[in-house]
Amino acid sequence: MTFNYLRKPLSLIVTFTLMLTIATGLAPGKDAVVEAASAEETRFLTMYSQLKNPANGYFSPEGIPYHSIETLISEAPDYGHMTTSEAYSYWIWLEALYGYYTQDWSKLEEAWDNMETYIIPINEGDGNEEQPTMSYYNPNSPATYAAEYDQPDKYPSELSGQYAAGRDPLDAELKATYGNNQTYLMHWLLDVDNWYGYGNLLNDSHTATYVNTFQRGEQESVWEAIPHPSQDDKSFGKPGEGFMSLFTKETQAPAAQWRYTNATDAEARAIQAMFWAKEHGYDNEEYLDKARKMGDYLRYGMYDKYFQQIGSAADGSPTAGTGKDASHYLMAWYTAWGGGLGQSGNWAWRIGASHMHQGYQNVVAAYALSQQDGGLIPDSPTAQVDWNTSLTRQLEFYTWLQSAEGAIAGGATNSFNGAYEAYPAGTSTFYGMAYDDAPVYHDPPSNNWFGMQAWGVERIAELYYILASNGDTSSQNFQMAKQVVENWIDWSTDYVFVNERPVTDSEGYYLDAQNNRILGGNNVQVATTAAPGEFWIPSNLEWQGQPNTWNGFSNHTTNSNLRAITKNPGQDAGVLGSYIKALSFFAAGTKAENGSFTALGSEASQLAKDLLDTAWDYNDGKGIVTVEPRGDYFRYFTKEVYIPNGWSGTLGQGNVLPGSNAVPSDPAKGGNGVYVGYTDIRPNITNDPSWAYLVDKYNTSWNPATQEWENGAPEFVYHRFWSQVDMATAYAEYDRLINERGTTPTEPTVPLAPTNVAAEAADSEVMLTWKAVSKADSYNVYRSTTNGGPYSLVDTVTTNSYTDTSVTNDTTYYYVIAAVNSVGESPQSLQVSATPTDAPTPVEGDLIVKYRNADSNAADNQIRPHLQLENTGSQAIDLQNIKLRYYFTVDGDVPQQFHCDYAVISCSNIQGQFVKLTTPVNGADYYLEISFTGGSLAAGANSGEMQIRFNKTNWTNYNESDDFSYDSTKTSFTQWDHIPAYQNGTLIFGLEP
C-alpha cells in the first residue's frame, strides 16, 4: 500500500498577545489576571481564527460555511461549495466552545441565526413562506407508499399505495404547542452559490438554493445521483414533469411541489452543542428554546417511513401504526416533508425513515432533551417521555451492535429491502427490526468507514462522562454507556499509531510480526515501522456474522458471532478529531467515576495528547490537512448515471439530459434506459481549477482494463469545514477535560447549594436524593420536625443520597442539604419533607392474584399486565363477584382502551373499565378495574393466563416506572399484592396505594 501524507510547519503564527486578547476580550496592558494559555487552548483559538479568516475562504458572501474550501470534490456533496446541515451543526459546536473560552456568545447566536435563515426552510420573519402548504397536511394520511429498489435503474418507483400509511401522532401536539406545523429542521443539502443554477424559488433574495441528490435506493451513490431543485415548479427537468418523474411514477403528470429532507444526525449534533453551551454558561432562553423546538420536531426521525408498526413487517405484511407503535425511538437516516406549489397546491405530506444507522445516534441530544439536568426538554406534552425512551433505546442499540472485538456494526431496518419484505430466516432482530450490516447505502457500504464509529461512540463517551460527573454510576443507562465505550476504546487503540507506521499488505489488511493478516480478535499486535511525526488511524472495516437477537440488557451476552475486521490505515483529519474527543471524554469519565484515571483511561488520555501534538505539524496555515489519494475519482469519467427511457430534460447549467453521449443501460440492473456521465450532468465542473490536473492524471495513470491507477491515484488536499472544526474542538475538549482548564484561574470557592432534592418516606425511614454538586467533597444532611427549621445535623455523607433510619412513623420531617469542600459549606438547599408511616399489611384470603409484566419498556404506549387467579381455599369462588384493580398513572389524561388478547377462561368473560381517582395517590391517579361476566374458580384451581393490555386513544406513552401496580422484575407469574382483589366490594387480597 502506498502512504501519502503532508506535514508543513504552521505558517500562520498567532502570538501569545493575540491569544490573550481573544481568550479574555481584554486588550493587552489592561489589568487582568489570566492563566497562561495551554498549548491546546492556543491551538483551538488559532484554528478558530483560521476558520473565521475571510481570506481562507471557508464562508460564502452570505456567511454560510462551505463544505470545503476546494471545489473539485465528490463525496456526500458533489461540489465543494455546497454545504450540508452537518456543516452547520459543526459551526454551532465551534461557537459553543469559543463561548466557553471567551464568554462571548454573540458568535453562537449569529451562527444559529444564519442556520435559521438559510438552511431551515421556514418563514424566519422575512415574509417568505418556504413551507407554503404545510397547513394542509393530514396526519391521518401522511404519504402514499412507493417501494425502494436496490438499483437506480429500477426507478421511477410507482406511487402504488400498496400499504396504507399509519397515523402521525405528533402533528396535533406540535400545532398546539407552536401554532403551526412548519417543520423546524434543516434541509440537508444547500447549493451555497447557486452553482447548479436552479435558484431559490420561494425566497429569491437568497443566493443559496435548496437542492437534493440521493433519491433512488441503497445502491445510488454520489456518482450515480442527479442533483435537482427541492423547490420544483417544473421550470427545469422534463417539460410538464420537472424532476419528479425520475423518482416516482404516477398515473398523471406530477404536480409542482416543494420537498425537503433532513439528516437527523445534524440536528442532534446542533442540540448536543447547545447543551454544552448551556453547561459552559450560556443562558439566553430565546436560543435555547430554538434548540428545544428543533428537538421536538426531530422526533419525526423516530418513525417508520410510512408510520407502520415497528416489527410488524417481519412476515412481509406490515400493519399501519395508530400512534407511537410506529416509533422505533432511534435516529433514522432522514425524515422528509413537502407539499404543493401554485393554485392547486393545497396538499402536503410527511415521511419518516425505516433504516437506522449506528453512526447517526446521539445519546447526548437524547439526554439533553429528556432529563431535567439536560435543560433542553421540549414544550410538547409527550416529548420528554419520547426522548427518555430514546435515550435508553439508543444505548441498547449500541450494546446490541457491538462486535466481539468492540467495533459497532451497522444498524437495523423496519422495512427489509425498503419494501417491507419478509425477513430471511434466522435474521437477528432488535425490537422486531431486522439487522442490517450496511443500512441505507451500499456504494460504498455505509458502515465500512471508521468515521461512523468515531462519530457515534464519541457521543457515548460524552454521556459516560456526563453521568459519571453527576454521580450516576449505577443506572442501567450508565452501565450500557460504560460497557460500550470501554470495549470500543480497548479495540480501537490497537489500530491507532503515533510516530510509527502500521504494516499492511496490498489490500490494506493489518499484518502481525509474522506477516499474517489480522482478521479480528482482541488485543491484537500490529507490526509497525518507525515513522516520526506521523499518525495513523483505521479507515475501513469488514463485517462478518450478526448480533444475537436483542432480549434486553440484563439478558445480553457478548456477540461472539459478530466480528469486525479492521483495515486500511489512513490520515483522515476530521475522523481524527472525533476520535480524540472520544478518547478525552472517556478518560475524563473514568476519572469522574473513580477519582483518578483507570489504566485504560490513562492510556486514552496520553494517546489523545500524542495525536494532538503530532497533528499540529500538519497545519498548513488554513487548517490541519493531509494529502488524500482518491482512487474513486476515475468515476468522474465513467457513464453510470441512469436516465429512464423517454425522459429528457433541461438542467440548471443549460445542459440537456440525456444528451448525445449516453450509452445503453445494463439490463441486469433492471432498467430500460441509458447512462450518462458526471460531466454530462454538471458541465461546469470542467471549468474547475483542478480539472486539468485530474484529466491528465486519468489519462496517464488509469488503466480501464485492470481498473487500477498504475501510476498512482490523483491526490488532493481538502480543507473540509467539518473536519477542521472536529480538530479544533478536539484541542478545546482535551484542554477542558484533561487539562481541566477554563479561561482564567479562579480562587477556590464553596460549592453551590444542592438541587433536585427529593424525599421519599417508607416504614421507619426516609430516603433522600439530590443532584451531585461540582467541587463538593461531602454533604451535610440537616433535619427538623418544624417547617422551616431550625435544623440539626443528622449526618455527613460523600454520596448524593442518604437514608435516615432514626425516624418515628407518623411524624413529618423537614430536610435541607448543604455541600461541603475544603473552603466551606454551601448555602442550604430548598427544604423537602416526608412522613414515614407503618407499612400497610396486605390482606390475604383464599384468592391470590399472580402477575407477570409482559412489557419490559416502562415508557411506551401500552401497559401489559398478564394476570392469573388462584383459589387456595376449600370452596369454589364465583368470578362474577370478583373485581381486580391495576393502579397506574395516566401521564396525560385522555380516554383509554382496554384489550384482552387471550385468556384460558375466554376473553369474552373479561371486562375492563377505567376509574379516575378523586384524589391522586403515590403511584396512581387511575385504576383499571377488571371484572368477570361469568365462570367459577374451583377450590385449588387457577384461572390460567389472562393476557391484558391497555392504551390511550391517542397512543401517547405512559411512564410506568412510578406506577403502584407495575413491577419490571416480575417476568414470570408471581404473587403480587399491588393488584388488589375484591369480592362483592370487600378487599380480600392485596393492598391499595
From TrEMBL:
The keyword Ribonucleoprotein does not apply. Residues 843-993 form the CBM3 domain. The active site is at E86 (proton donor), D265 (nucleophile). One of its GO terms (molecular function) is cellulase activity. This is Cellulose 1,4-beta-cellobiosidase. Residues 750-840 form the Fibronectin type-III domain. Residues 1-27 form the signal peptide. One of its GO terms (biological process) is cellulose catabolic process. Keywords: Signal.
